[in-house]
Amino acid sequence: MDSLNRIFWARQEIFIMKVYLPIVIGFLILLIGLAALFVVSFWWRHYRLWHLGKEENRFDQVAKRIKGTLAVVFANARIGKELYPGTFHFLIFWGAVLIFLGKFVRLFSYPVGLTDPPQSIFRYASFLSEIGALMAIVGACLAIFRRYILKPSRLETKPDNALIFVWGLTLLVTGFLAKGYRMSAVGVAVPPDWYTWAPVSYLISRLMLILPSTPLNELLVWHRAIIHALPALMLFTYVIVIRSPMQHWFLSPLNVYLRSLKTKGVLDPIPNFEEAETYGAKEISELTWKQLLDLEGCTNCGRCQDACPAHLTEKPLSPRRMTQNLKQHLWREGPKLLSLPPDQRSSEPIMETTVGDEELWACTTCMACEEACPVYVEQVRRNVELRRYLVLVETKFTSDIRLAFKNMQQTSNPWGLPRNTRTEWTKDLGIKKYAEETDPEILFWVGCAGSFDARNQKVATTLVKILQACGIRFGILGTAEGCCGDSARRMGNEYLFSTLAEGNIETMKGCNVKKILTMCPHCFHTLKHEYPQFGGEFEVLHYTQFLGDLLSQGRLKLTKPIEQVITYHDSCYLGRGNELYELPRRIIQSIPGLKLVEMERYGKKSFCCGAGGGRMWMEEKIGTRINQMRTDHAIETRAALVGTACPYCLTMLGDGVKEKGKEESMAVFDLSELVERSME
Amino acid sequence: MGTAFRLIAIVVEVVILMAVIYALFSAVMLTSLDFGLDQKYKKYIGRVMTIVGGLALIFFLGHLIAFYPRIPH
After folding, report:
1. Class of domain A412-552 (CATH, top level)
2. What integer pLDDT is reported at residue A564 of this predicted model?
3. Residue B7 forms contact with A (CB below 8 Å)
4. Residue A225 forms contact with B (CB below 8 Å)
5. Minimum Cα–Cα distance from A15: chain B residue
6. Class in CATH terms, A556-678
């Protein structure tokens, strides 16, 4: 180092040691206390808002919760479902982790004398930070390209996003520059292996050395400026970053930890129904604390919107928009509520101010949004809570919903057909009532579709023939069977649902029913997961499970070939709701000659037929019809057959094929019908 | 050139230090609000912080002018 540089650094040292360092040390001591205060205030602010909500227990099964959280946070489990955003998120996250680890080790290397000369651990830490920073920069560039160049429609870009990128890239780039400048200050006599421990900074330092000495000295001064800038940028973290979408660093893992561990799509009863003063959620404080946390845990990524059949068919509903609007509502009304005594709290209603009627009723409760969400935001329960308020308190719903309720109440089926005609389809089939069958193995729960809808009566008949052919001793409830109440519950009429459920449970207990076979996934889901809430504990199977068992036991043999190409439509309450994806496919693959081709959206990403959430009973007046969009997916596969295992899907897809004029080239069948055709 | 550059460097240092002060004060303000301080006091606290920030600015300017090393050529 030449004499001028020596003088320069000597003067620097005096300034740093006598003036700058004492200020910095004083600052740091104050900052540790302040940092603790900042962390506490962050959580206190959020806790106070969440505490406005109703009680809910999400503190059970700790080990399972931790395991899931670690998988999502560290392995980016659900985020990685989409390759491009999953990749850059992985790079940014792990880049940040490596930087932090490297800096942490290097910080503690100084007091224990591992830096002069630099020991192995110091060098490894340096390398870790360099690689981490590089990963984060590459990830950030990919993210910027996507947001500002590709501009996917589901992303909402605000000034906050630009600020986060500017902050992050400045922090990362100045880190490299500071190190590069420090290396260039040493000049050409750099230890030969520095380039392996700090490759990027080494490259920068070599670029600096091509400059003549005077500018180089000036650049060394800028090195100090950059070092000073780093704490400024770090402090900006609290002011701007923590109040921006970056809050998801802390809130999203918490939301994942406190996620629902119940089966997807299972709704909770209204506690103390008789004594409750109100039902559902009118105001923001009538949601549960977890539902309020969901609003803040949402990262605004828009994956739910891209999965939502209502949104994709131009209905006013976007799950992302609804969640973000409700979050703004919480931030607006929450502080007002907190400033009032608990017994005087009242805020503006959610409906009409934040959520529109058509937006809410467009939801088919298909759970595609929940499946797509990387941080487990629960939309379906919240939507039903809002519906409960409209139905049970304001009695505000359309005439078609009113008719469905009336029919379920008066005739115990949504079609409104006389109850005593429930068993007309059983003529000449020789089916016994459950109570009359000798030692029945199973109750065949037919459901309203199988009992009253002409197309689905054929499916019910087919199932009966399969059961009889396999020698299964079964019975039906006959006219004693009532609507399971799925539609009533999903449309928010919890009172009607509880009446129907309690009636059915009493009937089944009276007949000593233990095991139930359903043909409808909605009945299956409701009887299996929701009837226990009212004391109805039964073993419930969907027919695909039952037939799958019969196939494995060899009691059902499929020998007649069906030489056709089929595509299988996963119904929401069988697939996403109950994770039954493989069994129906195994049944298809057991049929000789049948070739399965998948639609683009299949399995967990299956696209709703449009009938769930009570929408079977509502007119679809806005945008494209959902069932037609799904039929288009099937047509794209060029399959001759569409298979499904749900009466609603069968109806909707059958209608879709007719509406598209494709009856000549495509037919929709229930899987049981294909099984019967192939049976020996 | 060296004098001009020293001036620019001092200005940059002051900007960075004031950014640190701004971030710190804003954080303290937001923390106070988070802990329940009424919104009506925000304006007055802001004014106090502006005055203290101004004093910090004078301090930093003075110290840097006095002690910032001269850049050798």
Report:
1. alpha beta
2. 95
3. no
4. yes
5. B67
6. alpha beta
